[in-house]
Amino acid sequence: MRRALFALSLLILGAAPAAAGCRVALDIGHYTESPGEVSARGVPELVFNQALGQKVAAALQDADIAVTVINADGSIRDLTERPRLASQAGASLLISLHHDSVQDRYKSTWTWEGAAYTYSDTFSGYGLFVSGLNPDFAESRKVATDIGDRLHKMGLHPSLHHAESIPGENRPLLDDRRGVYRYDELAVLRLATMPAVLVEAGIIVNRDDEPRIASDAYRALIALAVVQASRAHCQRHP
């Protein structure tokens, strides 16, 4: 039964990629019992992560890059299982998809469609994280830099709030222009046997940003950046 559940969560696309031997594993952040942050309008982060994952997976497939989607149905609770499944699938790169929030000190409450939700309009933008404990930190950073560079060129901007010197943040900022942070303790990144990057696609507690982050157009930009960075990775690691 357990293997059957893993089989359902492991969706492999792209039988004969142009970049032979190169496969991208997409990890859908969070799981059903712990769906992550709640957006300014009451939508769990997991819903955003799954929708973005579908868009990125389709874009990789269209680009003829083999892709494995891990935790597509939100059933994998164990974070250590995700990099293991990526390795089992033969992935040469792991991308973990998430959506961002802020510390509680910046949050306020508002009412949306008759219900009260927390929000913060203080910060806006994406973030990219790599672990110095990953066995290929250099390539992880290169992929994150490529993603950030492409997002920057497409008019998106990073949020630098994770570098703020306050409890819960204070992450080393490796590249302020591209929004690349070092966060060694992230399990999915440090336990991966291949280069790994965690993408915070946008801050869903920001009331102005949330509708844009949920749009097909925005997800297409994130997907394009991941595809282009993955293609460059595949050229370096055939």
Structure description:
It is a single chain. Helix content is 34%, strand content 21%. It has an eight-stranded mixed beta sheet, with helices on both faces. A two-stranded antiparallel ribbon has the order 5-6.
Structural class: alpha/beta
| Biggest sheet strand line-up | 1-3-2-4-10-7-9-8
Poorly predicted parts: 1-17
Mean pLDDT: 93
Shape annotation:
globular
Number of strands: 10
Helix content bin: 25-40%
> How would you characterize the largest beta sheet?
8 strands, mixed
Oligomer: single chain
Distance between the termini: 35 Å
Order of helices and strands: HEEHEHEEEEHEEHEHH
Give keywords:
238 residues, alpha/beta, 10 strands, 21% strand, disordered N terminus
Secondary-structure blueprint:
Blueprint lengths: L1 H8 L1 E3 L9 E6 L16 H18 L3 E5 L10 H8 L4 E8 L7 E5 L2 E5 L7 E4 L6 H17 L19 E3 L4 E3 L4 H4 L5 E8 L5 H5 L2 H21 L2
Parallel strand pairs: 2-3, 2-4, 4-10, 7-9
Antiparallel strand pairs: 1-3, 5-6, 7-10, 8-9
Helix pairs in contact: 2-7, 4-7
Can you summarize this structure?
The protein has seven helices and ten strands. With 238 residues, it is of the alpha/beta class. It has helices at 2-9, 45-62, 81-88, 137-153, 187-190, 209-213, 216-236; strands spanning 11-13, 23-28, 66-70, 93-100, 108-112, 115-119, 127-130, 173-175, 180-182, 196-203.
